[in-house]
Amino acid sequence: MAERSFVEEVKKLRLGAGETFRGEGILAVTKALLESGVAYVAGYQGAPISHLMDVLADAQDILAENGIRFENSASEATAAATLAASVNYPLRGAVTFKATVGTNVASDALANLASGGVTGGALIVVGEDYGEGSSIMQERSHAFAMKSQIWLLDPRPNLPSIVQAVKEGFELSEASKTPVMLQLRIRACHVHGEFTAADNKRSSFTIGEALDNPRRDTGRIVLPPASFVHEQEKVRERWPAAVQFIEERGLNEFFADGTDDIGLIVQGGNYNTALRVLERLGLADVYGNSRVPLYCMNVAYPVVDSEVLRFCRGKRAVLMVEEGQPNFVEQNVAAILRKAGVDTQLHGKDMLPVAGEYTAAETLKGVRAFLELYGRLQPLPAPVKPPKVIPLKPLAESVEARPPGFCTGCPERPIFTAMKLVERELGPHHVSADIGCHLFSILPPFNIGNTTMGYGLGSAGAAALNPNGGEHKRAISVMGDGGFWHNGLTSGIANSVFNRSDNLTIVVDNSYTSATGGQDILSSAAENKTRSTGHAIEQAVRGVGVKWVKTMRRTYDVKGMRDALREALTTKEKGPKVLVAQSECMLNKQRREKPLARKAAAEGRKVVRERFGVDSDTCTGDHSCIRLSGCPSLSIKPNPDPLRTDPVATVMDSCVGCGLCGEVSHAAVLCPSFYKAQITTNPSGWDKLCERVRSTVIGALQRRAARKSERYAF
Amino acid sequence: MNAKQPIKIAILAMGGEGGGVLADWIVDLGEANGYIAQTTSVPGVAQRTGATIYYVELFPAEQARADGGRPILALMPLPGDVDVVLCSELMEAGRAVQRGLVTPDRTTLVSSTHRVYAIAEKIAMGDGRADHNNLLAHAEGAARRFVRFDMAQVAEDNGSVISAVLFGAVAGTGVLPFSRAQFESTIERGGVGVKASLKAFGAGFAQANAPAETEQPQAAALRPAGTARDPQVRALLARIEKDFPVAAQPVLVEGARRLVDYQDPAYAQLYLDRLARIQQLPGGDLQLLTETARHLALWMSYEDTVRVAELKTRAGRFDRVRSEVRVQQDQLLAINEFMHPRLQEICDTLPAGLGRWLLRSGLPRRVVEHFTKEGRVVATSSLGGFLLLYTLAGMKGWRRASLRYQAENGRIEDWLERIVAASALNPQLATEVAQCQRLVKGYGDTHERGLRNYETLMDAVRRAGARLAPATLRELRDAALADEAGKKLQGALQRLALDAPLQQAA
Fold this sequence. Notes:
- The structure holds two protein chains of two kinds.
- Chain A is α/β, with parallel strands linked by helices.
- Chain A is built from 24 helices and 24 strands.
- Helix content of chain A is 38%, strand content 16%.
- In chain A, helix 9 packs across helix 12, helix 13 (271-280) packs across helix 16 and helix 14 crosses helix 15.
C-alpha cells in the first residue's frame, strides 16, 4: 500500500481528445505514455518519480484495458533491462527511476541496450533529485547519456512541453534506433498545470505476438564482432538520424532570434527561471516575449552543431545557462564554435556558479553580470542600508536547521535507541549505514553512522572492516528491507557469507520501501492483489547460508533489541550475524488503522487509544529522553514551575502511543515522569462499574490527602 | 515591459502540516475564478519532519487571452519578488525572512506564532529554545504587513488544522483578489472535513484584522501569598515579611510554599534559617539572596521516591492528565506510570543506617538488585497501583531519617558554605555558585552525571578562589550543559587551566 493513493487522479488518465487535463507533471507523463501507445512500463520508485509508479499501481485496470504490462522492478537495473523487449520487436516501452542513483544501478543494462539499439521506442524517464531538498549525491545524468549514447531530453517545465517530449521521445527513439532518456527536475515532476489531452492508444503490436513469433538478430547482441559494429553504427547511422529528426521536428526552440547580437543558450528545464529573470530585469514580458535572443535546448544531448552555429554566428556573445557540473554542454558548444571558426564570445560558468543549483537568485546574478558586461543593463547602485534603530540579534541565531528525522512512532527509532544504549556499555562501533529512512540515524539526536555507499550496500560497506585475527570490535551494518531486496541480499549478505565476515548486519524490516513512499516489496506483510508478498527476510538470509540469524518481531522492545545487539556483538560464534528488526512503518499503519478506529467509535464499539504524557512537576528539564528518541511528538514546553527556567518535556497530542517513551525510560533508567494514558471510548457496562468502584476509593483517599495539605495552604 | 505580473505566493511549512493542502486550495481558488495557476514544491525527504517551501503563481486568464499570450510561470520564488508569504510556524517565518522572501516594499507575511521546536532546541540539556521575540522583531522589520497569531490554538479551538486557519487569515488580509465566498467555496469543493475547515477558516479570517497579540507569556509567574489558616504557616509568612527585603519576598514565599508542601512548616523554617544567613552576609546582595532562595527551594525539594509518589497520586494531577490527553466526559481513562526504582533508590528511602547496610551487604543487596533489574509499570488509576503509591507517599513523615535526606542535606550545607565563602571574595561569584544547583537534576544516571558536573565546578571554584571571574563560572556551567559526554566542559577546564590539580602554594 503506497503512502499516497491516486485513485482520484487516475480517473484523469481516461480523458479523451480535446479535454483539459489538470494535475501534477508526473501524472501528465503517465497520461502521455498511454497516449503514446506503450506496450509495457516498469520502474523502481524513488523521489521524485515515486508518484509515477504509484499512479500506475493504482491504474492497473486502465493499463489492462490498453494491454499494457506493468512491472514493479526489483531494481533500476531490472527496469532498464526490461527495455530489452523493444530491441527485437516494435513494442514501445518506458521505464522510470530516480537519477542519478538509479542511473548508476541501471548503467550495465543501459549500456547494453544502447549498444545494440532498439526497434520499438524505448524511453527512460528519470526524475532528477538535484538541488534543494535532495537526499543523494549531486551528479548529472548527462554523463550516462554521453557515455552510452542515449539521447537526453530536457523539456521546458510546463505540462504541454513535457507531454510533447514524451511523445516525440518515442518517435526520436524509433527514428534513430536509440533509447531516449527524458530528464525531469524535481520541481517539474511536482508542478501543477494543465494540457489538452489526446485519446489513449493501444500498441498495434502486442507482447503476445512477440512471444508467439520470437525474432532474433545476432547483430543486435553485444558480442564481438557485433559490438564493434555497434560502436561504428552509433556515430555513422544513429547519431545523424537523431540530429536530422531533432532539426526537422524543431525539438529545440529559438526565441526572439535576430533582436540583438547577444543571446542566451538555456537548457529546457531552466527556461522558466531564465525567463523570469529576464522579465525582472525588464528585458522580457510575462508571456516570454524577450528582447534577448534565446536558444532553448529541449534536447540536452546530442548538441546539434548546425543549430548552435546558426544561433551564435553574428553574435558578439552568448551566455550558456547550464546547471550542474561538469559543464558538458558549454564545452561542447565551445568546441563547435572553435572548429567552425566562429569568434562569438562564450560565457557560462565564468558568470554563473560552477556548481550548485541554479536558483532564481543565482541565475539573476549571472544573467545580470552578462547583460552589464555587454552594456544592456546599468550596474545597480550600491544599496544603502538604513541605520537600524533597534539593533537586533542576527536572525541566524534564532533559526535552526530542520533536518529530516523519523516520523512519530517510527519503528526504526527504537533500533537506534537500543544502539545508543549498547554504545554506553560496549563503546562506539563502526556503523556502515545504508539508504532509507534509517539513514536519519546519522543526524541528531542519534548521531550514528560512519559511511553510506548506496542503496542496499550497507553491509558491503563494512566488507573490508574484518580483521585477520585478534580481538576487535565488530562493525555494524544497517540495511533496510527495500535495500535488502534491491541488491543487499547478494551484495551484502551472501558476500559476507562467502568471504567469512564476522560482522553484524541489522536488516530493518518495516513491511514497505518506506523512504520512497511505502510501496510493497517481497517481504511486505500486506496482501497485494497483483503482487506476491509475504516472503520472509529471515528465510532468504538462511537460504544464502547465514547461521546466526535473529528476528526481533517488535522493535519497540528496546530492552530486547539492546540485548540482541549486545549478543550479536559479543558472541564467540564466528561468521556473519544478521538481526532482522521487524515492525510496520507507522505512517502506513496509522493510515490504515486510524479510519478503522474512527469508524468503530462512531458505531458505538469499544475502542482504546493509547498515548504518552509527561508529568511536568517531576520532569527536571534535562531532556535525556529526547536525546534518546527525537520523536516529533516528544517536545518541550515552558516550565510551569515558577522556580525553574529550563523547559520541560511534553508529549503532543499527535502521539500514537508506540510505547518507545516508556521503554526508554525503563531501559535507560531515565525518570518517573512518563505515563501512558489509555483512553477508552464506548466503555462496556462492566468497565463503567469497575471505574465507579475505583474512583470512589481513590477519590476518597485523594480528598483525605488534600485536606491534610490544605491545612497549610496559603 | 513588465507591468503585468503574476501574484506570487510562498508557503513555508513542515512535513505533515498541510502546506500541500493549502497550496492546492490556492490553486483551486485561482482556477475556479478565472486565473491560470501553477504550484510546485520539493517534498523529497523534507516530508519526514523537514521544512518545505510550496510556491504558487496566479495569473488572470482574461488578461492572457486579451494579450494573446500564455504566461511563463516560475517554479521557485525569487528573493525580493514575493507578494504573500504564509508560514505555519514562527521559526519558518524567520526562515522566510532569512531567505529574502519577505521584503518591506511588497510582502504580506501571515504566520502562526506558535513554535514547533527544532531538534537542536529540544535536545539541549538546559534551555536551547530560539529567541521568540527576536524572530518576531525580524519578521516585523522585514514585512510590509505582518499578520500573526497562534494558529495552532485557533485550529485546535475549532477542531481543524493550521492550513484552514492560514487560508482564512490570508483571506482576511484582503491581499488576494478573491471574495470570502470564493475562498469558502474552495474549501467546500475540497470535500474533506468541510465543516471544521470552514469554522477554522472563519476564525482565521476574523483574527487577521484583530490587533496583534502582545509577546508570548514568559515563564510562569510567582504567586503572592494568600491567607494562611495554620499558625505555623502564618509565622513563616510574617518572618518573610519582617526579615527579608520586599524585592526578594515573592521568591521566598514560593520557596516556603514548596517546602511546606514538600515536608512541613518546620522544613520551611529551616529554609528561612538558611537564607537568613545569606542575607546577613556583608554586601547584602539582593540578587544573591533571590537566586539562592530559588535554588535552595529546588534543592530542598529534591525528587525522592516519596515525593514522586505523592505528586503522582494527587487529585489535581489526575485532572491535569485528563485535560492533557483530552479525555471526553463519556470516555474512561487509565494512567500507567513508568518507574524504575533501583537498589540505590530503595536504600535512599530507607532509614539511613538500614540503607547503608543494605548497600554494603552481600546477599540481601543482590536479591534486591535482582528484583529491580526491570522497570515497572504501575497503574495509578487501578486500586492496587494507587494504594502502593499512596502508601509510599505516606512515608513522608520518616523522610528526615532517610539515607537520601542525609546525603542531600550534607550537599546543601556544603553548597551554602561555598556560597558564603565565595561571597567573601565577590557576591557576583557567589550568585554564580548558587546557580550551579541547576546542574543537579533528573534521576538515576542523569542525576549522577549532573552531580558529577556540579562537583567538578565546585572543585574549580575551590581551587581557583579569587582568580575565578563570575563570568568564567557561568561559562563553565553552560559548557557542562552542552553535551552529555562532558567534552565541552573538559575543553573549557583545560582552556582555563583548571583541569590539573593546582600547585600547592609554598
